[in-house]
Write a structure and sequence with these properties.
mainly alpha; TPR repeat; 16 helices
């Protein structure tokens, strides 16, 4: 039940569900980790860290959960801007599990976030996580994780202004896990960042076939790309088509009003 709620992004209900389950076994480490993941989805990183810090303080039993605990703790610290704590934890997990893919992914994540957000400028210039991410990719045997590592690597390469390498990395991720929409969204971000609008339109068409449940969002994005290309009529036609099937959708109505305003500012009329 809890996984179903998470998949449907009903995170508050998922939190209630896992807390009810934990009433019968509050010390179940798997349930604690699931609760931490839900708290992260809810952006309650400080609450997640309270649970994670308790887990980290437990005796080191060399279990399979510990690397994931450290990964979540590093991620949570980074989201609240505490790079020093994240960096310290990343060093510790590398020492404990030097040949574990997630250990290198954890340190790679810490350095990558520091490179992107510049928590520590000096360290950002020294290491931006690429060597650890490459090690994590090489060591990882669970392909969904490998795809996510490629996605993170692509983001670092984007920040390094390396288009070809960034696209290559995210395309590798998609080839591994073609059902995950986040990978396609990441690719769209790379194409948008480098102003590759024709390629972005092709990608959005591909996404419309693969992910019809988010048709409205994808078509709105497609309309915005046409605007960037200067083809205002094509963008307007997409909005108008969406409104025919969703005539009372406030977001679409506001988008169409914005489009009218933009056209008027340009001294244009619709064909």
């Amino acid at each position: 039940v809890c996984q179903h709620l998470i998949d449907n992004k009903e995170y508050n209900k998922a939190l209630v569900s896992i807390e009810n389950t934990m009433k019968s076994d509050q010390d179940d480490r798997i349930l604690i980790i699931v609760k931490v993941i839900i708290l992260c989805y809810l952006n309650r990183y400080k609450d997640a860290l309270v649970l994670l810090n308790d887990e980290i303080k437990l005796p080191d039993n060399k279990d399979r959960i510990l690397p994931f605990v450290y990964f979540l703790a590093v991620f949570s610290n980074l989201t609240i801007g505490d790079f020093n704590s994240a960096n310290d934890l990343a060093k510790k997990i590398i020492k404990k599990y030097p040949k574990h893919a997630l250990s290198h992914a954890t340190r790679g994540l810490a350095f990558a976030y520091n490179f992107i957000f510049k928590f520590d400028t000096e360290k950002a210039e020294e290491d931006y996580g690429m060597s650890d991410l490459d090690k994590a990719i090489a060591l990882e045997t669970f392909t969904p994780n490998q795809a996510l590592f490629f996605m993170l690597k692509s983001r670092v390469l984007l920040e390094s202004n390396k288009y070809e390498e960034s696209i290559e990395s995210i395309e590798k991720a998609i080839s591994i896990l073609s059902s995950k929409i986040e990978l396609y969204l990441s690719k769209s971000a790379v194409l948008m960042y480098f102003n590759k609008y024709p390629e972005l339109l092709d990608l959005l068409d591909e996404m419309l076939e693969k992910f019809p449940k988010i048709e409205k969002d994808l078509k709105m994005k497609k309309a915005s790309v046409y605007k960037l290309l200067g083809d205002l009529d094509a963008g307007f036609n997409i909005i108008d088509e969406l409104l025919k099937s969703n005539p009372k959708d406030k977001e679409l109505l506001n988008f169409k009003a914005y489009w009218y305003q933009y056209m008027n500012n340009k001294g244009r009329s619709f064909k």
